Amino acid sequence: MPSSTTGSPPRSRSTPSSPAAARRGEVPFALTLGGVAALLVAAVCVAFSNGAYPVPPGELAGLLAAKLGLGSAAVAPAVETVIWDIRGPRVLTAMLVGAGLAASGAAYQGLFRNPLISPDILGVSSGAALGAVLGIFASLPVLAIQGMAFAGGLLAVGVVLAVASAIRGRDPVLVLVLGGVVIGALLGSGVALLKYLADPYNQLPAITFWLLGSLSAVNRGDLAALVPPVVVALLPLVLLRWRLDVMTLGDEEATALGVPVRVVRIVVIVAATLMTAAAVSVSGIVGWVGLLVPHLARLMVGPAFVRLLPTAVLLGAAYLLAVDTLARSLGPVELPLGVLTAVIGTPVFLWLLAFGKRGWS
Fold first, then answer.
1. Is 137 within 8 Å of 201 (Cβ atoms)?
2. What is the pTM of this model?
3. Fewer CB within 10 Å, N- or C-terminus of the chain?
4. Taking the C-alpha atoms of 118, 123, 128 and 129 in order, what is their torsion angle to the nearest 10 degrees?
5. pLDDT class of 74 with cuts at 50, 70, 90
6. Radius of gyration over alpha carbons of the chain, in Å?
7. Cα(268)–Cα(22) distance, rounded to whole angstroms?
8. Which whole-number Å values give the CA distances from 202 to 98, 129, 137, 215, 221, in the listed order?
């Protein structure tokens, strides 16, 4: 019987790294990415046009042309105020929050090799929730509440990493996930206690509103505070995109191929946590984006992180922007984002579980 090294050569098979496969994949990926970008542009146009003060597409185009110096169409001051001062910051914030949560979800799922991982698996959402609830309970201003939410998310993940580093002789991925679940449950009990002690007329409604998620109160200051952490956190994910693909093979295989597994894991966790904490500090708890959007992106372009990341970023921005537009357009009272993302995400995720075939192949 011939040995594995002297037998007949294996049947030729295209790999993602071969030039022929790359040439075949470039056009479909470019078309897919272009389609997602077009979807985002359409979502932006709809978001700017719809709301309590509708803006016709003609006025919206005239205002944009005037700002770009391409025309001098007369635009009502009220329209300009609505677009630039009210809807502009909200639209951009929704896009950044959606992009950050989707990128974090894609990074976590690839890093832990588990499609059920979401950005809050290491306790970042629970830590941010406890920080924000503490700020509301202490009657602090909005900026301080957002700062405490951001610090709480980072602190929670720091505790999880410290616990994981202190436990030796176990699977590091399993320790991280289980540590995140335990710490998240502990922080959730703290949130429940503060809700029980809060003033039921003033503090409790504000706590509940924040925990359900909303972008109704965002302004330019919130947008300016959100941009730096999201951009800074996205940079290492872009630079490490090839190593993340290798990490999906397992720690031993990745180490054999020269990838510093521990360093890459810590950098990715810190970057994804930074994005999630920044997003949650502004929008409140918005679930399902980091779990659902990476699945949809993976269904479109496959599991390769170099393609998955840009697709997830654009798709996450379009998805949360569309959900936010629905939240403020469906009725006279604005609906919480967390409720809508759950209502939309549950059936879509069940459909993906039943019919999605490309996910992790």
1. no
2. 0.86
3. N
4. 90
5. low
6. 22
7. 26
8. 30, 18, 10, 20, 25
CA–CA distance, 290 with 78 (Å, rounded to integer): 36
| Distance in angstroms (rounded) separating the CA atoms of residues 188 and 184 | 6
Per DSSP (E only), the strands in the chain are none
- What is the torsion angle, in degrees rounded to the nearest 10, for the CA atoms of residue 174, residue 175, residue 181 and residue 184? -150
Q: Report the C-alpha dihedral over residues 204, 210, 213, 215, rounded to 10 degrees.
A: 130
- Structural contact between residues 349 and 115, judged by C-beta atoms closer than 8 angstroms: no
Q: What is the pLDDT of residues 141-164, one digit of tens each?
A: 988 999 999 999 999 999 998 988
Cα-flanking dihedrals φ and ψ of residue 115, to 5°?
-75, -10
Pair 149, 128: CB distance under 8 Å: yes
Neighbours of 151 (CB within 10 A): 16
Q: Comparing C-alpha atoms, which of 115, 133, 136 is closest to residue 125?
A: 133
CA 69 to chain centre: 35
DSSP string, 153-176: HHHHHHHHHHHHHH--SS-HHHHH
For residue 11, the SS3 value is coil
**Distance (Å, whole) CA 97 – CA 34:** 21
Structure tokens given for 30: 């470019």
User: What secondary structure does DSSP assign to 236-258, as a single string?
Assistant: HHHHTHHHHHHHTT-HHHHHHTT
pLDDT value, residue 73: 62
- Are 277 and 158 in contact by the 8 Å Cβ rule? The answer is no
Q: What is the DSSP letter of 78?
A: H
Residues composing the chain: 361
Q: What is the mean pLDDT of residues 122-135?
A: 92
- Tell the burial category of 74 from Cβ atoms under 10 Å away from its Cβ (0-12, 13-18, 19+): exposed
Compute the Cα dihedral for 30, 32, 35, 39 and give only its sign.
negative
Residue 318's identity, in one-letter code, is: A
E strand or H helix at 316: helix 305-327
Helices and strands, counts by H and E, the chain: 15, 0
